Amino acid sequence: MHFKWKRLGENALFLSPSIILTAALGIYPLLWMLRYMFYDYAGYGDPLFVGLDNFRLLMRDGLFWESVGNTFIYAGGKLLLTLPLSLLLAVILNSKLRGGNLLRGIYFMPTIISTAVISVVFYNIFNSYNGMVNTVLMKLHLISQPIDWLGPKYAMLTVIIVAVWGAVGNYMLLFLAGLQSIPQDLYESAAIDGANAARRFWSITLPMLAPVAQMVIMLAIIASLKGYESIMLITEGGPIGKTEVMYLYLYKLLFPVSTGSPVEQQLGYGSAVGFATAVIVGAITGLYFLLSRKMNKLY
Amino acid sequence: MNKQLLIQQPGGRGKSTARPFSGRTVGRAVMWLFLLITAILTLFPLLMTLSGSLKTGAEMMTGGSLLPAKPQFVNYVEAWKQANFARYTWNSAFVSVMATAGTLLVAAMAAYVVDRRHFPGKSLYVTTQASMMFISVGAIVLRPQFDLMVALNLNTTLWGVILILISAHSSTFFMLIGFFKAIPRELDEAAMVDGSGFIRTFFRVILPLLTPGLGVAGLFAFRHAWNEYILPLVFTMTNPQLQTLTVGLANLRYGSSAAMQIHLMMAGACLSILPMLLAYIVANKSFIQVTAGSVKG
Lengths: 299, 297
Hints:
The structure holds two protein chains of two kinds. Chain A is an all-alpha fold. Chain A has two domains: 2-36, no CATH class; 62-297, MetI-like (MetI-like fold, Orthogonal Bundle). Chain A has twelve helices and two strands, in the order H-E-E-H-H-H-H-H-H-H-H-H-H-H. Chain A has helices spanning 2-36, 53-60, 62-93, 100-108, 115-125, 132-139, 155-180, 184-192, 197-226, 229-234, 246-254, 267-291; strands spanning 39-40, 48-49. Chain A has a two-stranded antiparallel ribbon. The longest helix of chain A is centred in the N-terminal third of the chain and has 35 residues, at 2-36. In chain A, 40% of the residues are buried. The mean pLDDT of chain A is 89. Chain B has two domains: 2-73, no CATH class; 84-254, MetI-like fold. Chain B contains 16 helices and no strands. Chain B is globular. Residues 1-18 of chain B have low confidence and may be disordered.
């Protein structure tokens, strides 16, 4: 009996730091949000219970739904560029070409660099007046006029390019890991049977990669819906709300963005928005999981 | 690749031999062009950061050439002293080292018990840790976390930031579980038979064997802490002397004289990228293996 209590005590001792931290800083904030989404609370004074009012407000909040739409454009654009590009790089690097390790090291490099730091850099080099992107494009005679990268027309494209820059290396590596786990003899026997490279790609590589790809794409979807740090630093959601994504909109309800624009804190409404964004991301992830079930059984 | 392409020949021979360049040569050239352009585009912003950090403020203002007319190493001195980057670097290093050490310790202790023992509520604990990685409600959690730190009087130091970083230890926990599984249980038992207690066995026998695992997990925890922006931003809004590199650098962009300071911004960006870049060059394999390992299962 004494022995059992001693074991339990040791378990508790070893687990308690993790449990206390997770409870206080992981779970408590979620419960806090679940409570205050039913309150009118600005962050000071007494919170006022308002029932579902915050959600009624949310339904009519044009800015929020616009930000949801922008999130889909941003995430969709990022995924459409990132996934094929990273798969293509992975397939090429998987063929063990000379210099492959160096190239892999270069392509993966952006993932170790702070999104915030590189966003400040991108903000400067995409500047239309003296940014290096326009300078280089004009020197190469690809454009004749400077492009207003941060203007209403191109701002979304710019933040998508920045997101793709930071993401390709990561997904390339994940695809590469999946490719390397495909047994090599499959290719050899297919080659003996006379299947050409394209045929082998469609009939072996893609189906064998499908289970890994299913997970990689899910990670990519979640990450692309969640990202707002670089947008915050490059455009602040502007101009005229063109790049406002939902997590950035949420952030603005809670904290001031730049010193010049004091925003009124709305913690109660912010909680409702936070809950709604989590539900939207969860729903999309769940939907993707349902639709992609087949990918697990392709071979 | 060579083997695959060689075998391709029988089908396409008639066409490719008719032209001076075979389809295969053209294909390889296109492939290398693509690889090269992608590599250049990947490196472009980094090279522009480096070149920008060595230009004068006036050169940055007018744009113009790719390279600085005369390298201005003085920019780094200015960033380090006047623009406060010495302070930011110290804060970043302090937060990252403490958060990494704390994350490793908390996660390793929990992972050890979960891997070696059975206890009531084990699956609840593991499920909770797993879901902590996937629930994303955005910045809203920062507010109750901040209030909690105010209540504990930790909002005027960087310990609040450090504790919150440590609290997000679930991915480290799962990474370390994998490494614990590779350490045979007989070792624990042998140590226990020799009279070493549970705690002593963990710290004296198991942790040393876990060093490779702690190394790679630590690399990821350090990268996360070093690169974090929103958390230290929110916590240091009223405490500029506590700002980390990411926050200090981003604030330059908002400053009233931002346009005059782009060269300092670039020097600061270089300073904050450098430590991670060095770690990456040294531990390239670990970064790549662990990232790849996350989907292999």
